[in-house]
């Protein structure tokens, strides 16, 4: 009888079969380090103020598709890379029944991953949608120049500007809006990664994924239904209502957008950006380690090997690789685990393939796993 595990069996075995297990931090989770016994459906506390009703949404989804990134660069000479970014202010759901006024690049969180090679020239056009209410701009950490381009790209609603700059050093770098209330704009979603590949490119892998973490500071409590206005007081106190991966609570995985699916014989590279604006991430894969970690996105450095948890500072990024010889769901978390169980910081990589009892044997019989 085949030992190929079905998706339903894997979800049941890892504790993702019920709503209370979505965070991977309840009894039945595959690792003790995520077993904090919290009811993920009951994390709201007493409201601090009466919220307005949830607003009609402008978009059904604010979370960036983690698969939606340009392919690896194969050319061997520098080129001009045209980039267009549109700033969009949009109402969307953080979780069902909870709406928020996001600020975005191209209508997604994080903003699009921009892929370049050392020596390339970025030819940027930035547009501020005429329906917006605020001024926006962009600061590229990969740009040598005043403000990383922030002053040159300041656009009022209905305006557009152009900027060219050469990328001269390799790495994965954050870009973000950098107007006066920079922390507010980043918190509301305005950050992304610009990747500068080294001249020799990156080692080949089977899959690449793109994730971004940030905090939301709102006038409501976590899980409280209604429209959550932004709270500058909570932001000043660094007390977030939500800590999110890709802009929505538990966005990426079988609980919502099931888009990071691989086979057990495949390798994965993840570009992980932390917009912040205030808190760093302790990035960890439950049930695995990072085979390689380029700390702070420093692709010119020698990667660390077999890293359990890597810190990613606000305004920085990490490039990590992993493989999964055992089938199942691998929960990617900020290992400050209250942010997972109570605030929403979770994404899931699902690996399909045959059971591998030489590496991991849960004691199932052949008939139970078939």
From TrEMBL:
EC number(s) on record?
1.7.2.1
Keyword Secreted (UniProt)? no
Q: Does the keyword Oxidoreductase apply?
A: yes
Q: Which cofactor does it need?
A: Cu(2+); Cu(+)
Gene3D superfamilies membership: Cupredoxins - blue copper proteins (2.60.40.420)
Please name the GO terms that the record assigns under molecular function: copper ion binding; nitrite reductase (NO-forming) activity
Enumerate the UniProt keywords alphabetically: Copper, Metal-binding, Oxidoreductase, Repeat
The chemistry this enzyme catalyses reads: nitric oxide + Fe(III)-[cytochrome c] + H2O = Fe(II)-[cytochrome c] + nitrite + 2 H(+)
Domain Plastocyanin-like per the UniProt entry, residue ranges:
98-199
**Where Cu cation is bound, by residue?**
136, 141, 176-177, 185, 190, 335
Q: Which PROSITE patterns match?
A: PROKAR_LIPOPROTEIN, TAT
**Subunit note:** Homotrimer.
User: What is the protein's name according to its record?
Assistant: Copper-containing nitrite reductase
Q: Which organism is it from?
A: Salinigranum rubrum
């Amino acid at each position: 009888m085949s030992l190929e595990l079905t998706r339903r069996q894997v979800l049941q075995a890892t504790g993702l079969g019920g709503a209370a297990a979505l965070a991977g931090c309840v009894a039945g989770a595959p690792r003790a380090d995520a077993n904090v016994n919290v009811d993920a459906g009951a994390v709201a506390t007493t409201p601090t103020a009466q919220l307005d009703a949830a607003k009609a949404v402008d978009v059904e989804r604010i979370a960036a598709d983690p698969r939606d990134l340009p392919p690896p660069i194969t050319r061997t000479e520098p080129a001009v890379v045209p980039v267009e970014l549109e700033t969009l202010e949009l109402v969307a759901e953080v979780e069902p029944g909870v709406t928020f006024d996001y600020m975005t690049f191209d209508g997604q969180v994080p903003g699009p991953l921009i892929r370049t090679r050392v020596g390339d020239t970025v030819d940027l056009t930035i547009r501020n949608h005429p329906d917006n209410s605020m001024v926006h701009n962009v600061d590229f950490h990969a740009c040598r120049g005043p403000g990383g381009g922030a002053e040159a790209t300041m656009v009022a609603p209905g305006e557009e500007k152009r900027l060219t700059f050469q990328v001269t050093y390799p790495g994965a770098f954050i870009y973000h809006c950098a107007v006066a209330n920079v922390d507010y704009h980043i918190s509301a979603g305005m950050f992304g990664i610009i990747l500068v590949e080294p001249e020799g490119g990156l080692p080949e892998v089977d899959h690449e994924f793109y994730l971004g973490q940030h905090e939301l500071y709102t006038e409501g409590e976590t899980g409280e239904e209604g429209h959550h206005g932004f709270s500058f007081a909570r932001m000043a106190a660094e007390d977030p209502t939500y800590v999110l991966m890709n802009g929505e609570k538990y966005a990426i995985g079988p609980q919502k957008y099931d888009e990071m699916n691989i086979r057990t014989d495949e390798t994965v590279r993840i570009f992980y950006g932390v917009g912040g604006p205030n808190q760093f991430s302790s990035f960890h894969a439950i049930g695995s380690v990072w085979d390689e970690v380029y700390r702070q996105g420093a692709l010119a450095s020698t990667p660390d090997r077999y890293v359990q948890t890597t810190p990613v500072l606000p305004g920085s990024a990490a490039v990590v690789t992993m493989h999964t010889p055992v089938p199942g769901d691998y929960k990617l978390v900020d290992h400050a685990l209250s942010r997972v169980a109570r605030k929403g910081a979770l994404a899931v990589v699902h690996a399909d393939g045959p059971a591998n009892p030489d590496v991991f044997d849960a004691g199932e019989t052949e008939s139970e796993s078939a």
